[in-house]
Amino acid sequence: MKSRKKQVLGIVAIKLLRGIKRRLSxxxxxxxxxxxxxxxxxxxxxxxxHRERTQANLRMVFPDWPESQVHExxxxxxxxxxxxxxxxxxGANRTLAELESHMRIEGREHLDAGLAQGKGVLLxxxxxxxxxxxxxxxxxxxYPVHVVARNADQDGVNRIVNEIREGPGTxxxxxxxxxxxxxxxxxxxxxxxxxxxxxxxxxxxxxxxFPAGTVLGPGVLAERTGAAVIPVVCVYEGDxxxxxxxxxxxxxVPDCEVKGEGMMRAINSWLEDRIRxxxxxxxxxxxxxxxxxxxxxx
Length: 298
Fold this sequence. Notes:
This protein has helices spanning about 1-25, 30-45, 50-60, 65-90, 95-100, 110-115, 130-140, 155-165, 180-185, 215-225, 260-275, 290-295; strands at about 105, 120-125, 145-150, 170-175, 190-195, 205, 210-215, 230-240, 240-245. The protein is an alpha/beta fold. Helix 1 runs parallel beside helix 8 (about 155-165) and helix 3 crosses helix 4. It is globular and about 50 Å long. It starts with a helix and ends with a helix.
């Protein structure tokens, strides 16, 4: 029964994705973004589970916000999700010139400095802004980029998503069994992109002042390989424009007993700062503190 249900959901999801792509065909970027934001608002109204999780997370992290601000930011989170989703779906065949006409790039020297060390780069970002544009731009420019991503639950959806990701030249490493491949890419002096801002249970570290289940993998990899850990974020600035910013390499927080913990503390702190700058563009609908609640840490 489960297999049949999964198969049906996969067929529906594929048809939905193709239908959205057809609907957006021929529209300007501004028109596509308006449709995406409208789609996000529709999800906000219909998806009570994720709407309430978004609001609860915002209340926890920003206790001084009035309810009107919580609701307004929650709605914008869904609008950003819709806008970023349609931008991804229609962006498979963009040229470098088209990408750069809507982006300003800052801090590229930090990425180049990390690569110059010859041990590869762990490129760290989060589910913030429009993270897919980052790898697309880097691949179009000519950087050797590999991104670690969780496979979609439906094979057909996974195929469509990965085809779009790989269109500019990015390679995709399936999360869960990617450690050896990551080590090989870093040893070759290449770039591996990771988004370590989702719920896990490797270790519980502070995130916005609350214990959050955090992966240790990126920190362990950085220690083992000596790869530079370069943070990056691509945020939406309005009027179909983005700011893509590379930051100086992170250094581990000292005096940590667990392998990889010091770097993950540094990554969590950097992510917090970036999310506070544009709180309406992070994926607050994700249950980031779920494992912490289950273990009675919250």
